[in-house]
Design goal:
The protein has 3 domains: 3-112, Nucleotidyltransferase, domain 5, CATH 3.30.420; 123-184; 187-234 and 245-312, no CATH class. Helix content is 60%, strand content 10%. The chain has 13 helices and 7 strands. It has helices at 3-6, 36-47, 64-72, 82-91, 99-112, 123-150, 157-183, 186-196, 203-212, 221-227, 251-267, 269-280, 285-309, and strands at 10-16, 20-24, 29-33, 52-57, 77-80, 236-237, 240-241. The chain has a 5-stranded mixed β-sheet with strand order 3-2-1-4-5, sandwiched between helices. Helix 4 (82-91) crosses helix 5 (99-112) and helix 9 packs antiparallel against helix 11 (251-267).
Amino acid sequence: MNTQNTANIHYVAIDVSKATLQVQDDKKAFTVENNSIGHRKLLVHLKGCQKPLVVYEASGGYERELAAFLGKSAIPQAMLNPARVRDFARSEGVRAKTDPIDTRMILAFAKSKALEAIDPPSQESLKLAALLDRREHLVEQMAREKNRLQNSEALIHPSIKRMMKILEKEIAVMDKAISQLVDSTPLLKSRSLTMQSVKGVGKVTAWTLLAYLTEMDHLDRNKLVALAGLAPFNRDSGKMSGRRSIQGGRAKVRKCLYMAAHTAASCNPVIAAYVQGLRDRGKPYKCAIVAAMRKLLIHLQCLIKKSQLAPC
């Protein structure tokens, strides 16, 4: 981290909830509504700060309107992983949890880590994520209905089948809406086609990476792999050498990459040879697939970066 770049930053921490925004900086603490009126009040305060950087946690979608407003107002921002902030609070001996306490911890965390601004996702990426979220809801519901069909009285099968037909239509509607959004956005379309050119990577995998891994084009490979939750962590102590494992990261990205790597292991000659080589060395199948997921993600990132450098 370049401390020279962060020396004069005025951090403004916000704890986001459904109805309110709890704001804290070195000047004062106050609360505003989490709506357009409250956002404008917040902007008045931010305009009075030199080099403001708004930091807030991801909060189940309640932060989206705030992020969009800050982006339109050209206010630098950074969204944090709530688990990291909570672990930081515990390390400081803070066990209580209230909105003012959470905001103070966000502010302290930002200062301690000398955080820098992160470019927020584009409006198109946010729309894509919303459509994919809804598609996932429908797919999960379809899976539940299929399970019920296999383990229920024949009396209710007609009802289940009617529901499955409705879900099939809704999933098709979502797929069409996603395709139209991607095709109407040149950058998303180009990257989607680039990723789908790799055997094993389908449209849903490409859409998922575009929506939930927007940092793909500018992070180094180690940070990207960690962000996706594919970085192996050591478990060593003294003479004991434990098994390394992956944890954390973005679950939706990891899930889609698992399916892509599983497919690529049978149809992509490069990935297939890589997985087989690991298996021949005694690695379990899942361990080999996780390694293939990392290899696939890094390859996709390279293709994206190369496409950006290609002449128009």
